[in-house]
Automatic annotation (TrEMBL):
<dbReference type="InterPro" id="IPR051122">
    <property type="entry name" value="SDR_DHRS6-like"/>
</dbReference>
<protein>
    <submittedName>
        <fullName>SDR family oxidoreductase</fullName>
    </submittedName>
</protein>
<dbReference type="Pfam" id="PF00106">
    <property type="entry name" value="adh_short"/>
</dbReference>
<dbReference type="InterPro" id="IPR002347">
    <property type="entry name" value="SDR_fam"/>
</dbReference>
<dbReference type="InterPro" id="IPR036291">
    <property type="entry name" value="NAD(P)-bd_dom_sf"/>
</dbReference>
<keyword id="KW-0560">Oxidoreductase</keyword>
<comment type="similarity">
    <text>Belongs to the short-chain dehydrogenases/reductases (SDR) family.</text>
</comment>
<dbReference type="GO" id="GO:0016491">
    <property type="term" value="F:oxidoreductase activity"/>
</dbReference>
Length: 234
């Protein structure tokens, strides 16, 4: 059986771990990101999803990649997290974050959905901040809430097609995005892990395993899956 993983943001972090896990499960991996993915056998499609016409140059490569597939798993993973608040967020900066985190996934959906065979899956990587807010990352939070809406619409609009969808919402995962956001400050990491019931950061492969489970189990379709090791609310 020919299984294909199309993933965005597979060059590092959760995306890289997911690409590796699916590769080990005999999926052909196709990655879209600016930097290349370091994974034997993976096909790299270099894109900057911030650019308005980012999809134009890679449409035919993507359609070729799914042409003979018996199952396609499309994972919308790439994202950008800026520090901003509703008091200072400017329109252009907001549009940029929405373009990468929310519009680009829909542009990929529109291209690929007509070519997805029955048994395929469209998975979204959300965040704990897809269903709640904290101060200081308004654009990211709005984009992640929007992604849950896109997942729910995916389920409704593709009813009868045999394609399932879910949104996996990671908690604090040990990646460049997290460490960059907190300036790799050990005190902040200690404060974060004190609010996690397992008192540690999540390994990216734990999220990858969750995505693989979702890909292989259509019964979860429509779910928002909180993969956060139990965040303690105070
Ligand atoms: N880490 C956490 O604690 C955490 C928590 C909740 C949710 N998440 C979510 O998990 C997902 C992965 O995050 P991560 O922590 O693994 O982040 P990461 O290590 O920063 O990786 C982000 C990925 O997105 C890609 N990307 C960013 N901007 C792009 C652009 N303009 N065009 C194309 N690709 C772009 C990057 O690739 P290039 O730089 O090569 O382009 C990279 O592969 C994201 O959706 C994030 O919101 C993470």
């Amino acid at each position: 059986m020919s299984k294909v993983l199309i993933i965005t943001g597979g060059s590092k972090g959760i995306g890289r771990a997911t690409a590796q896990r699916f590769s080990e499960a005999y999926y052909r991996v196709v990655n879209l990101s600016r930097k290349p993915i370091d994974l034997a056998g993976a096909q790299q499609i270099p894109v900057d999803m911030l650019e308005q016409d980012w999809l134009a140059g890679c449409q035919s490569a993507l359609l070729d990649a799914v042409a003979d597939a018996e199952q396609v798993v499309l994972v919308h993973n790439a994202a950008r997290q800026d520090g901003d608040t509703v008091a200072d967020l400017e329109g252009d900066a907001f549009r940029d974050v929405l373009q990468i985190n929310l519009v680009a996934p829909q542009e990929l959906n529109r291209l690929l959905i007509p070519h997805l065979p029955e048994g395929s899956a469209i998975l979204y990587v959300g965040s704990t901040l897809a269903e709640k807010a904290v101060s200081g990352c308004a654009s990211y939070i709005a984009s992640k809430h929007g992604l849950v809406g896109l997942m729910r619409s995916t389920v409704q609009d593709l009813a009868g097609r045999g394609i399932h969808s879910a949104c996996v919402c990671p908690g604090f995962t040990d990646t460049e995005m997290l460490r960059g956001h907190i300036n790799n400050d050990p005190e902040v990491i200690a404060a974060i892990t004190a609010n996690v019931s397992h008192q540690r950061l999540i390994d990216p492969d734990e999220i990858a395993r969750c995505l693989q489970f979702c890909a292989e189990n259509p019964v979860i379709s429509g779910s928002v899956i909180h993969a956060n090791l139990g965040q303690i609310e105070r």
